[in-house]
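REVIEWER CHECKLIST
Item 1: Sequence provided? yes
Item 2: Single chain? yes
Item 3: Sequence as submitted:
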Amino acid sequence: MPLVETPLLLGRDAAGRLAYGAGPGVGMAFIEGYFPQAQRVLRIATAYFTLRGYQLGREHIAQPAQLRILVGHSEEKHAYEAVVDEILAELGQCQTDLMRTVADLLQRIRTGQFFIREARSMRVPFHCKFYLIDEQVLWHGSCNYTYKGLKIAAEQASASHESVEIQAWITWYDEVAAQAHDLLRELEERLNKWYLLATPFEAYLKMLQLLDHLPELPQRPGVYPPTFYQRGVIARALRQERQYGGALIVAATGLGKTIIGAEIAERLQLAGHIKRTVLIAPAGVKREWHQQLAGRDVNYSFYTSQVIFRDTSDQPHHRIYELEQEIQRADQHTLLLIDEAHFYRNQLLVDESERRAIRSRVYERIRPLLANGARVVLLTATVYGTSLKNLDSLLHLLPPQHDTATGTSQPWKATSAEKFLHLPVVTVLGLPHVLRLANERGDVDEHGRTFIQFAHERRYLPPFLRLRTETYRLLLQPEMEQAADARCFDQQYKVMQSFFVDEVAQTQVGLTDAVYNSTLGSWLSSPAAVAVSLDKNLHSLGADGQRPAGKRPRRGAAKYESPLFLPADERGKYLEPLLTVFRGSGIARDAKYQLLAGIVARHCVATRGKVLIFVNRLSTAIYLKQALRQEFADVRVGCTVVSSRGVVRLASADLRSAELRGFSPKSHYPSTGPDKYEVLICTDADGVGVNLQDCATVVNYDPPGGADVLFQRVGRILRMTTAPDRDVHVYTLLPTILEETTNESRLAQSIRRLFERMTQRHEKSRGIMGSAAFTSSPRVDIALNGDIDALHFVRQDELLTEVGGSGAASFLTHSATLEKHRAQASQLPAYLLSTKLYARAQHRVVVLIRQGPSYRLICYNYRQQQLESFQDWELLDWIRCDSAALKAPVPAEQVEHAANEAVQRWATEQQCSIEDITKLSAVYLLPANARANQVRQLISRLAKS
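Item 4: Structure as written out by the authors:
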């Protein structure tokens, strides 16, 4: 039913004076009728007193009259301490400028014309509001001395001119007031602070504190609370969720992505924004996610990262069926939380390819969820694997950005790493960033070591990340080059493949030869791996459709499905002798293995440490396990690959998990077990989401294909631990063929291109993460502790500048400032206005507002009278200053008016109620050249005078 507007009814006595009234505005009518009559004392008893209420009445109060306010209420829950806060709360409203009103009130206080006392805590039994005009008039009723009570609410009032009755009310009033709490001093102090404007640094701190606003939540056993650096990422992600519906968090391995993701889910659920979470993550981290989510009472369901790739099933017990049911039920109260999101980095190439009949299953399943308004949080340690298209692939998993100008929605895109880092939905946090943040916080121990303060202990990053490159001669290099040049490893028909070229920013199509590439990778891996590849080659058909003459294939022998370019007999002339040598060669002839044996001897035998070895081929894993166990009787060797009856396969998930726990029991707390191994051989199936911090040495035995794989491998051991002197060693084994620049064989050129791509991809990924994991130099030591700015290899300052405000330089600097001054920030007033000089040409005001539970910064061009769109980090960069910064010469009234005008314009554009918005802090940014012009004008005026 539509609201019926209540009329204002007024009645007068025989002398024409207001006698009674009811309806909205009755209080204002009585103020206009009776306040001007007060010449000495105007006494008011009211449940609430507000500045806007005072603003309505002040122009009707004669200058000599003294105003006395008695605030009282019958409800005990209103405490003395809350009254001044209630009065000052209107400093956050945005409808009315109050600066002149506050100035008038302060003047009355200083001249003894205003008193205010609180009677609530005395439990004085009065609920009626009344106004005494000298000894002449009493009017009472239900009108509080507030804007709403006087102008908006339908209230009632009655007047009395009986002197006996009036005197009785005055006596009662004065007796209660004499015993009430005097609020004058506190009110004056706090109003004066607001009126004189805060310092720029105070306003800056206030904004940082509120943008980082994360109320403390109760913690249960086993649930890890977020650290200081995680809190900043969580707060930013929650703002991104509210504003864009999604967030992509790129945090280096070991920085606690699980805790970050669990906190985001918990806080969204507590705020009522979501009711359930759909978690997609690697199977290996299921237990860790359950501990953090279940411990926070998050309603969630878990699916492994591979499920989303599977064919649709109509069987209710299948996980893909359950996932599709979840997606169909998804709405705006659903959170899709994807851990290790880089698994889906190639989906855009799949989806955009015109030569593939099947589109990306990942996008086909995610798009309905996005269309239904679900929220998305993506977590990964690495976003760049092979090309910039990887970045867009991940951004397509987020809710699209809405263009208000055109009314359309488009997926987020990044045409460069720099633009990716500046997207408002992206946050990047690398290891050096965290160290610098801790340094700024002052977390340095008695030995000068920077530490990260966790709940009950200090943890340290290794003082050095020691990168080592060792070279070896490939076995049978001339013979393998000759066979490749003769096209023994070529398919008859190449396969069309799409790939993205960063340099021209285009998707191109090329031909790929899976057999040639597989053979090359096997040769680079081990004699055992290349033997498997050659045997498979010799059992495959040639272009003529024939097998080798007079040779019956072994039963069950593997072969390539695609026919090869050369006939089988011709291939046999080259490959049969090679296969015999590779099968029969021992470790003595394998120069690459000898390098590994030396590493194991240094780090396991000599120093009793541990070594983690990554390989690309399953047969290489078995080969190394047997060789190391035979050579090092006292070194226990674990492996995540098994061999049974000549069949080599990846061990089951449970068995691999047991091997990982046996290798690194301390990192699997609280489910620790016996320490079983000093060496662990594994594939990249166990290179993601697994903490193996008991180990401090990793060996890239085989080269990874993407930069993200390289960082993931190193990330297994590059963790924060309680050991301050734990150095991390990373070995990469490279073939000497890379140094043979005059070698023009096909294999030499292919290997050089392979490692060039790996180096280029590493550099681009390093530019995002701000740290290195690979070097082509023999030895590079990266000091992860100490004077980070001086690191010439990491080039910290350059990298932090490169990643701008999206999680490094700006994000880091602001977070460090808040951490250093958090205690001061917590003591600041609720509402702050300030001014600051800055190096821009426009007069702007930056306002931090709260709308419901959400905080956001808005920017308003005051001279052009229009809102402007900038990222939070840009606005905070303009405001950033230290405690010595001075206020810019801008009148306080202008600051408040500009801030209110900004919020009013924003509310109009957003089509929301201005009454639902509170301005918490605002800074008027005055161009520095404007200040210079003011000085010149002053000098000119003085000269003329």
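Item 5: Key structural point noted by reviewer: Confidence is low (pLDDT under 50) at residues 499-505, 761-774, 785-808.
Item 6: Recommendation: ____
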